[in-house]
Design a protein that fits this description.
By secondary structure, the chain is of the alpha/beta class. The protein has ten helices and twelve strands. One of its GO terms (cellular component) is membrane.
Length: 292
C-alpha cells in the first residue's frame, strides 16, 4: 500500500508578523471611509489573475485598492485584527471560525466569494466504478482531513459512526460499514499517491503544482450542500467594519463579470460562485464556532 512507502515528516512553518503592530486598529478604517477611499486588502494569492481584474474593476467604481500578499495563512488575520488591513479574502468560514476561537478575535464575513470543491482523483479512471475495496489517500491536515472524509461520505464510500460531523477524523469512520480503506498522509504526498495509481483526494494547491487537470476528478463534494457551507470563502472584516459601506461595496466587485471570468480561469473552471447575505454567513460562522 502507498502508506508503507511514505516517510513521516514534520514541517515547521515560520510565521512573520513584522510591522503589523505599527498600525492601530483605527488606521485602516479611517482610510476606507469617505469619498475616493483607499482600501487595504490582504490575500495569500495576489499573483492570480482574479486580483488584477479585481483592481481594474475597483478603479472603475472609484476605489483605490492596496493589495498585500502574505506567504502564510495566519498573518492576514493578524494584520486585519491589528488594523493593518481593512479586509482580507483568502479563507473559508471554517478556517475563520477556528481562528476566532483560538485567538479571541471577532472577525466577521461580509461578502461570500466562491467554493472550490474538494475532489477525488484516480489515475486513468473517469468514474468510481471498481473503487470498492481500494485504499484511498486523503490529506491529514486539520483544514482538509475532515472535509475529505465527508467527500467520501457523499460518494457513499464511507460510513461514519455518528452522522453529521462537520470535521470527522479517521477514528470516526465505521470501517466495517465502509466500502474503502482511508489513509491520511501529508497533503504534499497525495499527488504522489495518485501518480502510483492510488485514489487520492487532492486539494487545488497541490493539483496545480503536480500538473493534474482538476476536471479529471471522479467525484467532488456538492458546493450547494449543507456539508459544503463551512468551505464558502469570503471577504472578512473586523466587527466594527461589518456595516462599512465602502468595504462592502468593494468586496461586491468580486462578483463582477470580469473578476468571475478571471476566477474561472485561475481555477480551470472548478470554482463555484457563491452569494450569501452577511446574516447567512454569520449564522454559518456561529454554528461552526458552537461546534468547535
Amino acid at each position: 500500500m502507498f502508506l508503507r512507502r511514505v516517510l513521516a515528516t514534520t514541517a515547521a512553518v515560520a510565521i512573520s508578523a513584522t510591522g503589523l503592530a505599527a498600525c492601530s486598529s483605527s488606521d485602516s478604517s479611517d482610510s476606507a471611509s469617505g469619498d475616493n477611499p483607499t482600501i487595504k486588502v490582504g490575500t495569500t494569492d495576489a499573483s492570480k489573475k482574479a486580483w488584477a481584474a479585481f483592481e481594474d474593476e475597483a478603479k472603475k467604481e472609484g476605489f483605490k485598492v492596496e493589495i498585500q500578499n502574505f506567504s502564510d495563512y495566519t498573518t492576514p488575520n493578524q494584520a486585519l485584527d491589528q488594523g493593518a488591513l481593512d479586509t482580507n479574502n483568502f479563507q473559508h468560514l471554517k478556517f475563520l471560525s477556528e481562528y476566532n476561537k483560538a485567538n479571541g478575535t471577532d472577525l466577521v464575513p461580509i461578502v461570500a466569494t466562491e467554493i472550490v470543491p474538494l475532489a477525488l482523483f484516480w489515475k486513468d479512471h473517469d468514474s468510481l466504478d471498481g473503487i470498492e475495496g481500494q485504499e484511498i489517500v486523503i490529506p491529514n491536515d486539520s483544514t482538509n482531513q475532515g472535509r475529505a472524509i465527508n467527500v467520501l461520505v457523499q460518494a457513499d464510500l464511507v460510513k461514519l459512526k455518528k452522522e453529521g460531523l462537520i470535521t470527522p477524523a479517521i477514528a470516526d469512520i465505521d470501517e466495517g460499514a465502509s466500502k474503502v480503506k482511508v489513509t491520511a498522509v501529508d497533503a504534499a504526498q497525495t499527488p504522489a499517491a495518485y501518480g502510483e495509481g492510488t485514489p487520492a483526494i487532492i486539494n487545488n494547491s497541490f493539483l496545480d503544482r503536480a500538473g493534474i487537470d482538476p476536471t479529471t476528478s471522479v467525484f467532488q463534494d456538492d458546493p450547494n450542500s449543507e456539508e459544503a457551507e463551512p468551505y464558502i470563502n469570503a471577504f472578512v472584516v473586523r466587527a466594527e467594519d461589518a456595516t462599512n459601506e465602502n468595504i462592502t461595496k468593494l468586496a461586491e466587485v468580486w462578483h463582477s463579470d470580469a473578476v468571475q471570468a478571471a476566477v474561472s480561469e485561475d481555477s480551470k473552471g472548478t470554482s463555484v460562485e457563491v452569494e450569501r447575505t452577511p446574516e447567512e454567513l454569520k449564522a454559518i460562522v456561529d454554528r461552526l464556532t458552537e461546534q468547535l
